[in-house]
Amino acid sequence: ELANITIDELKRAADTLSQAELDRARAQMKAGLLMGLESASNRAERLARMVQIWGKIPNLEETVARIDAVNLDKLRTYAQSVASSAKMATALYGPIAAAPDLSALEARRAA
Questions:
Q1: What is the CATH number of the domain that holds 42?
Q2: Dihedral of CA 59/64/66/67: which sign?
Q3: pLDDT tens-digit map of 14-51
Q4: What is the pTM assigned to this prediction?
Q5: Exposure of 74 by Cβ count < 10 A (0-12 exposed, 13-18 middle, 19+ buried)?
Q6: Closest Cα partner for 73 from 27, 13, 9?
Q7: Which of 41, 54, 86, 98 is 20 to 30 A from residue 74's alpha carbon, by CA?
C-alpha cells in the first residue's frame, strides 16, 4: 500500500506542489538540522554520514544554502522525472505475499 501511495504522491507533486509546501519542507529540514547539532552523538553521526556520502564535511552555511537553492520549478521537474521515467526497483522485508510486483507499480505510475 505504501508503494502505491508513494507513486501517487510523486505524481501529485509533479503537478500540484505549492510554494507553501516547499517552504514548510525547507523550514522543517533546517530546524531538524539545527536541533540535531545540540547532541554530540547526533553531530558525530551527521559528520560521518557527510563524509561517507559527499567525501567532505560541508559547513552549516553551505548546507542551508543548498536547502534554500531548491525552488518550485526544480522540485516539480525532479518529481516529474521520478514519477514518469526513473528506473524502478523494489526491496521487500517481512511478509511479501501481498506486496505488489514491480510491473504493477510501473503500471500504476504510467496511469
A1: 3.30.830.10
A2: positive
A3: 888 899 999 999 999 999 988 988 889 988 998 999 89
A4: 0.70
A5: exposed
A6: 13
A7: 54
